[in-house]
């Protein structure tokens, strides 16, 4: 059984980006210490095109071997002409509008999203599944999320894109770990409460 982990960056007030989803203000907090944490603990969450210039494209995957993104999140890379932003992972993009995949390495999930995720989670062995987001996809998959890894940056957005684009539904999680960084970034890990 593999875990589905929503690994996400957010503001103090829980937004994963501005109202359009842009979270680039958070990049300012990726200093040496935090970058060391990311590359040491979650190297596979850095996109392939970002890893190459940093000379870390040969770092082995540590936690995840599969990624799932919503089409709007995938579009961020696609707009820059990058069709396989996580080439070091098995890539799935949820979309009903993309009629064919822009890249042979990327599989489109058009139907039965939850069923497909359950199928991936039921696979034997291997590493976990990185739920990249965005908000809408995370909202639809909330019931399947086993773990949350929330990188909180010391900024208030006031309004913006919520972590889960879903209706009100109370779901319990158990705090498993907290890491704090010198620049005020906080990383909390939660397991789904059973
Ligand atoms: N801060 C962070 O860590 C973080 C992480 C990831 C993303 N983001 C940001 O989040 C923003 C995008 O989030 P978003 O909520 O607008 O969109 P999203 O969740 O990335 O994508 C939504 C799209 O996914 C597809 N989809 C959703 N449910 C589906 C289902 N059941 N079956 C098939 N396809 C399904 C649909 O694509 P079609 O319209 O093609 O059918 C839908 O329009 C971006 O701006 C990105 O930068 C931030």
UniProtKB/TrEMBL annotation:
Protein name: Dihydrofolate reductase family protein
Signal peptide: none
UniProt-listed PANTHER family: 2,5-DIAMINO-6-RIBOSYLAMINO-4(3H)-PYRIMIDINONE 5'-PHOSPHATE REDUCTASE (PTHR38011:SF11), DIHYDROFOLATE REDUCTASE FAMILY PROTEIN (AFU_ORTHOLOGUE AFUA_8G06820) (PTHR38011)
Domain Bacterial bifunctional deaminase-reductase C-terminal: 108-187
Record InterPro entries: DHFR-like_dom_sf, RibDG_C, Riboflavin_Biosynth_HTPR
Gene3D superfamilies reported for this sequence: Dihydrofolate Reductase, subunit A
């Amino acid at each position: 059984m593999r875990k589905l982990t929503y690994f996400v960056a957010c503001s103090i007030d829980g937004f994963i980006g501005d109202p359009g989803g842009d979270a680039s203000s958070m990049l300012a907090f990726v200093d040496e210490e935090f970058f060391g944490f990311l590359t040491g603990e979650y190297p596979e969450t850095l996109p392939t095109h970002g890893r190459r210039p940093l000379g870390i494209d040969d770092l082995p995957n540590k936690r995840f071997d599969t990624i799932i993104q919503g089409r709007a999140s995938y579009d961020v890379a696609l707009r820059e002409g990058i069709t396989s932003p996580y080439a070091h992972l098995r890539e799935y993009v949820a979309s009903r509008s993309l009629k064919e995949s822009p890249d042979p390495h990327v599989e489109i999930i058009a139907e039965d999203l939850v069923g497909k995720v359950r199928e991936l989670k039921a696979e034997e062995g291997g590493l976990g599944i990185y739920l990249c987001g965005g908000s809408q996809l995370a909202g639809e998959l909330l019931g399947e999320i086993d773990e949350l890894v929330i990188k909180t940056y010391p900024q208030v957005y006031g309004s913006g894109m919520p972590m889960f684009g879903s209706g009100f539904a109370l779901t319990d999680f158990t705090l498993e770990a907290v890491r704090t960084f010198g620049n005020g970034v906080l990383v909390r890990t939660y397991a789904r409460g059973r």
